[in-house]
Design a protein that fits this description.
Helix content: under 10%
Structural class: mainly beta
Number of domains: 1
Distance between the termini: 26 Å
Number of strands: 17
Strand content: 35-45%
Radius of gyration: 19 Å
Shape: globular
Number of helices: 0
Length: about 300
């Protein structure tokens, strides 16, 4: 059995928030025997929004590349941009005839505006509550809010999580030089729920020096521009069951906003990936080698950061 040394998020104190205990959010992952399907990337239901989308969000091929409300630009609304950092602390855990691939992941906001979510109160532990995304002006005042997801009560952590924040999936790769994830397997987790807080500055250059979001128990959650929220590989839900996966080359692909529920300025940069070689050692034990990763040219801090600091 492979053991991992780590520390889970604990107590954080900020200048404008109460002292809170940060609990992290996970879902159980449903997996099965590997099956190949010819799907290039995440296909969200891009016509299900309950607002009119700006025409500039439709590219030449008729595909939506964002979901900004039609009148937001005229009002000079600040829009977030959601994306994944490169997975960190990747390793295999072997126990009870089961092999899991464990990863630390981070969802970031590289846009101009706050990714601010408000819950509808009162809430009950039995029923989910609506998750409202609030779009703010440059002075911090509210412009409009839209229902985009829901908060679900997590009995283990005793607070509410936002649904469909990210997904983790394995894609097949053609070899050690492949750089384009195209074909999915059925190994993955969809619609993972998170509690959103400001946890790590991206390259230490956030326009907001202080955390705006640090409490999982209040009415508001979110991620500020230049910040990301991170989940350590030790936590339940930060794993993929690869027990029945054949040896070979694979992409581990992480996707922010996989269902395109949340309002953001660019869907095309939501994914990050690493290329791995999954094999066995001379004793027959599974092992993996990291061969490559997607680029972070515009935000180097998404490729290299201090996990769980």
């Amino acid at each position: 059995m492979i053991l991992f040394q780590c520390k889970i998020k604990s107590i954080m104190k900020t200048s404008n928030k109460n002292i809170v205990v940060i609990s992290t959010i996970t879902l159980f992952i449903v997996v099965g025997v590997i099956i190949i399907s010819p799907i290039k990337d995440v296909q969200a239901h891009d016509t299900d929004w309950n607002w009119t989308v700006d025409s500039d969000c439709i590219n030449a091929s008729g595909r939506y590349v964002c979901n900004i409300p039609a009148d937001a630009k005229t009002a000079h609304v600040l829009i977030p941009d959601l994306r994944e950092a490169i997975p960190q602390q990747i390793g295999l855990q072997n126990a009870h005839q089961k092999t899991t691939l464990r990863i630390s992941t981070s969802v970031a906001n590289t846009g101009d505006g706050q990714w601010q979510m408000r819950s509808e109160n009162p809430a009950t532990q039995e029923l989910p509550q609506l998750a409202k995304q609030q779009l703010l002006l440059s002075d911090g005042t509210l412009w409009k809010e839209y229902t985009v997801s829901q908060f679900e009560y997590h009995p283990a952590h005793k607070h509410f999580h936002i649904a469909a924040v990210t997904s983790y999936e394995l894609y097949t790769a053609t070899g050690s030089s492949d750089t384009e994830p195209i074909t999915k397997t059925n190994i993955g987790s969809q619609k993972v729920t998170f509690c959103l807080i400001d946890w790590i500055k991206i390259s230490d250059n956030s326009p907001n020096n202080e955390r705006a979001y640090s409490n999982c128990d209040g009415q508001f959650q979110g991620v500020s521009p230049g910040w990301m929220d991170q989940y350590h590989q030790e936590l339940e839900g930060q794993e993929l069951d690869v027990t029945n996966v054949p040896t070979g080359y694979y992409f581990l692909v992480v996707t922010a906003n996989p269902e395109h529920n949340f309002i953001e300025k660019d869907f095309t940069n939501n994914q990050a990936w690493i290329l791995i070689h999954y094999n066995n050692d001379d004793k027959g034990n599974p092992k993996l080698e990291i061969l490559n990763q997607s680029e972070c040219l515009d935000y180097p801090g998404l490729c290299k950061y201090s996990p769980n600091r």
